[in-house]
Structure to design on (230 residues):
């Protein structure tokens, strides 16, 4: 087929221990999936079902690295998350079947323009740009589930300039990976190449120009990001 413009390049994340890469189709995110984080954001986690938002695939920064500090914010926040990468798709998938879709796992940062998000919420507007801005999604190499299984517990944390800011355990998720995938699959057909960011523990806080972030997820991997001074 002839295109009127060049097709976009495939966004891909390295696979640990393999020369192949994982092509990213879509990035789905679970909102407020840790009770303590829900409370620090002013919500009652016992009263709401999971909800989802999306980031564009080209927001992914494979492997992290040095990034420019976003010009449009004075309140950039880190949110450390386990990421599930889907090798298979499906619609109306049960929680018992959902993990069969997962190719592997990574650790990622859902970077958020908190001031942009707050202003959009106040005005009753969508807050897509607060989550989906360029380079808002640094993600570590993906580790196949065939190698590590499906992590349901383990320390997940992020340090800024060597100081731990967020620290939690995967077993603190309100909705497990399988439950979140099953719920999402009732709204959209999940597809190979989709990523699911599974929520963040408490302790989100501001990042400044010049800061260095080091995120880890026990048994999964690590991600390092630094922000250039303005």
């Amino acid at each position: 087929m002839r295109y009127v413009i060049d097709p976009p390049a495939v966004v891909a994340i390295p696979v640990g221990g393999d020369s192949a890469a994982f092509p990213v189709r879509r990035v789905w995110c679970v909102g407020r999936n840790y009770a303590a984080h829900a409370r620090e954001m002013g919500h009652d986690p016992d009263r709401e079902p999971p909800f989802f938002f999306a980031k564009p695939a080209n927001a992914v920064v494979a492997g992290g690295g040095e990034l420019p500090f976003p010009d449009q914010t004075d309140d950039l926040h880190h949110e450390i998350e386990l990421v599930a990468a889907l090798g298979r798709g499906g619609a109306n998938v049960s929680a018992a079947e959902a993990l069969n879709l997962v190719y592997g796992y990574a650790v990622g940062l859902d970077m958020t323009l908190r001031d942009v998000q707050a202003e959009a919420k106040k005005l009753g507007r969508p807050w897509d740009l607060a989550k989906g801005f360029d380079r808002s999604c640094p993600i570590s190499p993906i580790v196949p589930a065939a190698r590590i299984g499906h992590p349901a517990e383990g320390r997940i944390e992020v340090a800024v300039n060597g100081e731990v800011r967020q620290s939690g355990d995967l077993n603190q998720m309100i909705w497990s990976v399988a439950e979140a995938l099953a719920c999402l699959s009732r709204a959209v057909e999940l597809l190979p190449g989709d990523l699911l960011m599974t929520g963040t523990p408490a302790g989100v806080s501001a990042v400044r120009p010049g800061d260095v972030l080091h995120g880890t997820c026990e048994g999964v991997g690590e991600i390092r990001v630094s922000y250039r001074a303005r």
